[in-house]
Amino acid sequence: MANSRDNAIVLALHAPETEHTFQELKEIFGQERAVHINKDLYVQSYKLSESFREAVKMIAYSKTMKHPDLTWLSNEDPGFLECHGKNYSEMVYMASNLAFTAGCKKAVFINHLCPFITTQHLEFAFSKISEKNCVLGASPEGRVYLAGFTRENLKIMENFSLWQENYLQEMLEKAKRNKSGVTGMEDLVIIKDEITLKKWLDSKNSSSSVFSEILKNAENGIIKEHHKRKRKEKQEEFKPQQNEETKSGDNGQIKETTEGQ
Fold this sequence. Notes:
Elements: E1 7-14, H1 23-29, H2 31-51, E2 56-62, E3 81-82, H3 88-101, E4 106-110, H4 119-128, E5 133-138, E6 144-149, H5 167-177, E7 181-184, H6 194-238, E8 246-248, E9 254-256
Parallel strand pairs: 1-2, 1-4, 2-3, 5-7
Antiparallel strand pairs: 4-6, 5-6, 8-9
């Protein structure tokens, strides 16, 4: 993998407020739930980018009076490119362009609505990006969850659509017009309804359950070992001392002798 400063992960975020939450999410989940779900997805995508050490983070954020920074996203309060008044597509393009201006050679945009992206997906994407090749990952309905590109292929991110189904086909056409090849990735689910939301929540609960079970087993093992050690100490404490009239028999076992024998 190249120097981490050569790679950038691009994120676009809006403040976790009703008026700044995607209308599509509010129509699906209701206003209050949509805000919380969208925020959780933002946090998930940020944690993913933070865990991938082979790239810098390039965050586009439209701040508000209520949320002027990203302390709601992370205690580290990461820096960001101020994009007040810009739409999502403009934010993605601006952050990508800034990454290249800052000296990065490759950029990977991740769609926060897909919480199933892993560091392995990111590693694969960066490994396939070149001046003549882009990387695209989409959901089964053709909504793009990841796009990897260089400055030469930045045009594929113009007017990016977060919600358009079959948008993958449009991006493939853009790459073709730019004389760029495309490496595809596996289909991943994007949160778009109650069914996909449940799939994500189930996967989170499953991971938590597995971790809890591992922790529980580890704790039980420590407790059992502690009790075993205590029992042994008690046995040693009350073990009768051998007297002078005790000697070893021919068979190597302890043999007791008495007076008069």
